[in-house]
């Protein structure tokens, strides 16, 4: 990690008494977003440290987020809205599961074990962002592993304008 | 989503011309951190929007992050350091996989399908934060699905002081 990041951390720690987050400011909400460097859920929504639980993975996949939703719901009483936010120009619209499998196999030509593992993986390719948001919210709404009644919303974050637009609202009903 | 968050997004979009992130400021690094509301990788390291790819899940598990690491590595040329950052007082130290299974089954008493699904899930319980960081970095270093030579580092983020401390450095060697 670059020295300037470590210096920034020292400054952060030096001023920590006034910054220290606590669960008192938690809004009882979860956000699922992409790990893309251009996505910053704090900036995007004016969120301060401590206000939201934020899950991020390639594409902002709800399927990939299930474990991370279940733990706070079932163990720590986090019952609030789950907002699924996908963004335009997402990398997951640019590479398919089949292409990912080929790329990984090419990087490991002599490894049958790698080929078998990657062939068993789904990379959650996105064909259409709005459809993917709808599908992810539908997936959560029908998932009995989650707390029944949890409010769900699905959003598209436009990287060209910085605006978020609501695609769908729902609730866990399984 | 609360109206004040949507208002904050309108402000963000209104000032977007000067804020718009681009990959020009990307530091070619990935961060894996926990989804806990008290963890904010931007504040913690003084990172600005666009500088890092940030994966977040319950516990900051590297095992859970593999798909999200593979896509940018194999498809988008993200070859830089992966920093695994776990934090003190993590929820994953407070609930075991067995306890999670029991909680979910109790919430769905008549569902054998739910019981079977949750029994097949690993929730990546953490016994000791430093050991978990070491194990996660070791897991990545030995993983042939990742790009050979990728720099790895493992850190503990102390929620009481705001300081991060390096636990381990390594590289992908599989």
Automatic annotation (TrEMBL), chains A, B:
It catalyses: hydrogencarbonate + H(+) = CO2 + H2O. Its EC number is 4.2.1.1. Zn(2+) binds at residues 34, 36, 87, 90. InterPro entries: Carbonic_anhydrase, Carbonic_anhydrase_sf. It holds the Pfam family Pro_CA. Its cofactor is Zn(2+). The keyword Metal-binding applies. It comes from the Eukaryota. Binds 1 zinc ion per subunit. Gene3D superfamilies: Carbonic anhydrase. One of its GO terms (molecular function) is carbonate dehydratase activity. Keywords: Lyase, Metal-binding, Zinc. Belongs to the beta-class carbonic anhydrase family. Reversible hydration of carbon dioxide. PANTHER family: CARBON DISULFIDE HYDROLASE (PTHR43175:SF3), CARBONIC ANHYDRASE (PTHR43175). This is Carbonic anhydrase.
